[in-house]
Specification:
This protein is mostly helical. The protein has three helices and no strands.
């Protein structure tokens, strides 16, 4: 079975960033493959995230 790579562009709306923040909170409590998958995805779009989203992530980790 071949794996097909499909690249699609999605707009980073306020709602999508909110969903990413919620997903991050969910992932932080897990010890499964989803942690690595989520982190890889977020790293790939990090430069496109808003400053507010990045500040929220920093605050969450640093307290």
């Amino acid at each position: 079975m071949k794996t097909e790579v499909i690249n699609k562009t999605i707009e980073l709306s306020d709602n999508l960033e909110l969903i990413l923040n919620c997903a991050m909170r969910y992932v932080m409590g897990r010890r499964t493959y989803i942690v690595g998958t989520f982190c890889d995805y977020v790293k790939s779009i990090m430069t496109d995230l808003s400053l507010i989203t990045l500040e929220r992530r920093i605050r969450k980790f640093l307290g």
